[in-house]
């Protein structure tokens, strides 16, 4: 069945979430029953989209004994996944909450190595797809993967007539954008500073720096994620800032992925072609990102919370 959104995750994971009464060195820390969940940037975007009622196709490599566990969970969550079977086992990551302080510790393991042949096979799977409107490339690069893999994926999306959303770590983001422009990027302030060649970026210069990237043609839409402060955006369609609603935060895992999902879910309903429509997309993105922080690390945004937050959110500030 054709889908409007395809996500590409080069370094997926099976995440384990648990809790300890208190972190203490040199002690046996008795953990709560762990909860397993699929992880990795593009995988999380596809999961969040499914929670918002949008079917996406998650394209990913997955090998080893945990691959079947992750794929079964994706299917149970309504996510259509196309997984390339690879030699290296799927990585496991661990999210541990300290019940005493409420702080969360995220232990991220190295990704599975992909051979050159496996990388080519993943790109061939993408090349075989058609009819989609957006390709979301999200998450870290797998070991042994060069930036060229992302360049080729962007070119394949363009050939299919799709727009590319790029949400990858800072150094990878810089390397890709030196060679290709994309539709949307979502840097944080630190990553934005690096993109415009600044060692540090005062808050007063964030909007101007995002605007520079749009004017230079680096991306049509630049959304600067600002955590509890919401998101600032600059685009060829308009500019503004959306404050985040005040919520009780349990975990920030997947909040950025939920923001991307919220933006795209709204974009399918109301394509961003002017200041009003792009503001609506960012607004839903911020609502979805905020809703994700209200859940435990193994969960993401939920439609009910997103709807409630949208009704209560501060108005958009147009630039």
Structure description:
36% of the residues lie in helices and 23% in strands. Strand 6 (91-98) and strand 7 (104-107) form a beta hairpin. It has helices at residues 41-51, 66-76, 116-127, 147-159, 170-177, 189-195, 206-215, 255-269, 275-293, 303-312, and strands at 5-8, 13-20, 35-39, 56-62, 80-85, 91-98, 104-107, 134-138, 163-167, 182-185, 219-225, 231-235, 239-242, 317-318. The protein is built from 10 helices and 14 strands. The chain has a 10-stranded mixed β-sheet with strand order 5-4-1-8-9-10-11-12-13-14, with helices on both faces. A 4-stranded mixed β-sheet has the order 3-2-6-7.
Q: What's the short version?
A:
The protein is of the alpha/beta class and 319 residues long. It has ten helices and 14 strands. The protein is globular.
Total count of helical runs of at least 4 residues:
10
Oligomer: single chain
Q: Helical content, roughly?
A: 25-40%
Strand content: 15-25%
Mean pLDDT: 94
Structural class based on helices, strands and sheet pairing: alpha/beta
What is the makeup of the main sheet? 10 strands, mixed
- Could you give the order of the helices and strands? EEEHEHEEEHEHEHEHHEEEHHHE
Q: What's the end-to-end separation, in Å?
A: 40 Å
Task: Write out the strand line-up for the largest beta sheet, numbering strands in chain order.
Answer: 5-4-1-8-9-10-11-12-13-14
Alpha carbon gyration radius: 19 Å
- Low-confidence runs (pLDDT<50, min 5 residues)? none
Give the overall shape: globular
Number of strands: 14
């Amino acid at each position: 069945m054709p889908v409007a959104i395809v996500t590409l995750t080069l370094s997926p994971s099976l995440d384990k979430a648990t809790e300890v009464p208190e972190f203490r060195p040199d002690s046996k820390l008795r953990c709560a029953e762990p909860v397993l969940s699929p992880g990795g940037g593009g995988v999380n975007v596809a999961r969040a989209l499914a929670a918002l009622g949008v079917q996406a196709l998650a394209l990913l490599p997955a090998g080893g004994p945990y691959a079947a566990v992750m794929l079964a969970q994706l299917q149970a969550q309504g996510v259509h996944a196309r997984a390339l079977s690879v030699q290296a086992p799927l990585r496991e990551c661990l999210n541990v909450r300290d019940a005493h302080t409420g702080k969360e510790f995220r232990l991220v393991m190295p990704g599975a190595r992909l051979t050159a042949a496996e990388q080519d096979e993943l790109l061939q799977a993408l090349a075989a797809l058609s009819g989609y409107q957006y390709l979301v490339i999200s998450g870290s690069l797998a070991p042994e993967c060069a930036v060229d893999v992302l360049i080729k994926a962007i070119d394949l999306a363009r050939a299919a007539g799709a727009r590319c959303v790029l949400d990858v770590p800072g150094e990878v983001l810089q390397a890709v954008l030196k060679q290709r422009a994309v539709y949307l990027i979502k840097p944080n302030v630190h990553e934005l500073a690096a993109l415009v060649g600044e060692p540090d970026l005062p808050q007063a210069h964030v909007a101007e720096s995002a605007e520079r990237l749009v004017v230079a043609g680096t991306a049509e839409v630049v959304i600067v994620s600002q955590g509890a402060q919401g998101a600032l955006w600059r685009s060829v369609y308009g500019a503004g800032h959306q404050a985040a609603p005040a919520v009780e935060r349990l975990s920030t895992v997947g909040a950025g992925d939920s923001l991307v999902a919220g933006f795209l879910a709204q974009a399918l309903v109301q394509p961003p072609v002017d200041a009003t429509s792009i503001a609506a997309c960012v607004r839903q993105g911020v609502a979805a990102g905020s809703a994700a922080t209200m859940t435990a690390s193994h969960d993401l945004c939920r439609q009910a919370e997103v709807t409630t937050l949208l009704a209560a959110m501060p108005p958009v500030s147009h630039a």
